[in-house]
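Input/output pair, single chain:
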Amino acid sequence: MLRAGEHRRGYAPGVSTLRFRLVAGAAVLIASLVLALAAAETYARARGLDLRLARATAVSGTRTAASRFLPAPETWDLPYLPRVFRLDDQGLETAWGSCRFDHAGPTVLVFGDSTTRQASGGARARSAPPPDSSDVLAHARWEAERTWPTALRASLGPDTQLCVVAEDGYHPADYAELARHLLPLLKPERLLVLLCDNDLQDIAARQAVEQEGWMVVYELPPSRPVYPPLWQPQLYEASEAFRFVHLSLSQATGNRVEVPYETPRLPWAESLQELAGLAPTTLIYLPRLAEPGRPSAQERALLDSLGLEVKLVELSPPWDRWRREERDDVHLSDDGHAELARQLAASGLSAY
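Output:
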């Protein structure tokens, strides 16, 4: 029999046991929440959800093998390599052919983007129909043989080696990076670079991502959306998953505020000036294939600010003759490429 105030051992297990279960349950809940958040963050980073905010600047186009880019070496600050690019200890091969590092004569190296790589497609092509797109090399060479570098080759000296590295979406900063790696190997007497209006601007650093076997290149935007009711700056900065929640809610509700997002910028002018400091460089500017057929006042001011000589491509109407496609006022037709090569040859490049 118990005296007043005494308790038999184990008589009141409910209090301590309940406390233990509550603590244990809370620990399990917290651990589960942490694991769930970690899993969500891992998934967000693996899927690159931040890239939902980005603008795709170059996509593997029609999803044919002929438009598949190559990954760049990790040591190269370059988002991707051209679809045909092979570099070994003997030389370089692109869609325009092979170049040897031990070439005895002069070497001319061409850099360009889609305005250099693309010639007329389909019915406008002055050649046989395109080969099967699954043959990357054959399809790339089919276009390359009708571009201005190929046409220019015929006007160069017989001992001159012409090397071309061009791909859709390239920027002057990419040419500077390519030059850092290729000039010590090729030692060119001259660089040729074809520019158009979208080259005269700094752009955000880009990121290339493999998606289902296709490379998509993203340019991060200058700002990111925030859903104001959930604003928590530290968590927003740290968590890609949390940023995606903000993106989804701001898109769904229309309630959004844009916050600045600092990304590295790729300079156009400094990159071209760097090229000119590495090797004798000829810059070529292609105005839009529409009235007035000349650079705008703003474009002229930007080109003048370089402090470098720039050759202007002078074409005149009717513009359709020079266009790759009827409504394309940027890319050249086969006739346009041939005329550009003729103007360059007449300017004295045939001395090489």
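Residues 4-12 have pLDDT under 50 and may be disordered. The chain is about 35% helix and 20% strand.
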